[in-house]
């Protein structure tokens, strides 16, 4: 029996797959069901572009057959939990994934967590990471946001980070689709295989947030079930050669 091809979904909440799904399957999961692929989700709500860059490394290391990649916003921060800790280079396994109610939690080793990578609000309000980030670190983060953080500068730096990952996917000859998402203001014209601009992407939330549904269902992906079905149709259309 042939081994199914594996599609990796990478990104933030818009690219994530809930676990449990509660009836709202992500478009990548729907796509894999249609194509007979195995779906491996590394996307996680609140992920920074640095975390997404590490997701790319993981997908390449795992020899993914296909990748769907979404880029996120620059209002996010990577906080080292122990400033005295030294590693040669951070890997995806060093980033907190537990507790986000996402399928990716079951794909990322959590035995050596060293970083919290999340939105400012999630970190300050301790939505997911409880007491991992200290009160002193949160105070410093607030001061940094107030006096040093510049969204335009941070976005441009993130663009370079994700661009490097895209080029690495290209160099490894891995078929992928890029969704520029919150970095769509930058030049992606050099990337031929990206989400069509004339079709709604997950980041557009074309039908409004998921809690407009009746009955109300929680989803970390922000989009309702019917939006994911539309995204799946778009992905099927632009990847007809994936088999």
Give the helices and strands, then pairings.
Layout: E1 6-10, H1 27-35, E2 38-41, H2 49-61, E3 66-70, E4 76-80, E5 115-119, H3 120-124, H4 135-147, H5 151-171, E6 175-179, H6 225-238
Parallel strand pairs: 1-2, 1-3, 3-6
Antiparallel strand pairs: 4-5
Helix pairs in contact: 1-6, 2-5
How is this structure best described in words?
- There is one protein chain.
- With 243 residues, the chain is an alpha/beta fold.
- The protein has one domain: Rossmann fold.
- Helices cover 31% and strands 12% of the residues.
- It has helices spanning 27-35, 49-61, 120-124, 135-147, 151-171, 225-238; strands at 6-10, 38-41, 66-70, 76-80, 115-119, 175-179.
- The strands form two sheets. It has a four-stranded parallel beta sheet with strand order 2-1-3-6, with helices on both faces. It has a two-stranded antiparallel sheet with strand order 4-5.
- Helix 1 (27-35) links the parallel strand 1 (6-10) and strand 2.
């Amino acid at each position: 029996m042939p081994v199914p091809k594996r599609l990796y979904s990478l990104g933030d909440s818009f690219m994530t797959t809930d676990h449990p799904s509660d009836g709202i399957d992500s478009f990548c999961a729907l796509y894999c069901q249609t194509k007979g692929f195995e779906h491996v989700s590394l996307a996680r709500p609140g992920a920074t572009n640095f975390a997404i860059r590490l997701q790319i490394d993981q997908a390449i290391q795992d020899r993914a057959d296909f990748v769907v990649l979404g880029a996120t916003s620059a209002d996010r921060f990577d906080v080292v939990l122990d400033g005295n800790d030294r590693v040669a280079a951070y890997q995806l396994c060093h980033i907190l994934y537990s507790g986000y109610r996402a399928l990716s939690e079951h794909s990322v080793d959590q035995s050596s967590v060293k970083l919290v990578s999340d939105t400012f609000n999630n970190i300050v309000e301790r939505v997911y990471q409880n007491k991992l980030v200290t009160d002193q670190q949160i105070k410093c983060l607030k001061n940094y946001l107030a006096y040093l953080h510049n969204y335009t500068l941070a976005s441009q730096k993130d663009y370079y980070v994700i661009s490097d990952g895209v080029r690495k996917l290209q160099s490894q000859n891995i078929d992928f689709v890029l969704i520029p998402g919150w970095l769509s203001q930058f030049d992606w014209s050099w990337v031929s295989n990206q989400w069509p601009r004339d079709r709604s992407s997950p980041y557009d939330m074309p039908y409004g947030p998921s809690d407009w549904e009746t009955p109300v269902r929680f989803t970390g992906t922000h989009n309702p079930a019917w939006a994911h079905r539309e995204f799946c149709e778009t992905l099927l259309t632009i990847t007809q050669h994936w088999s």
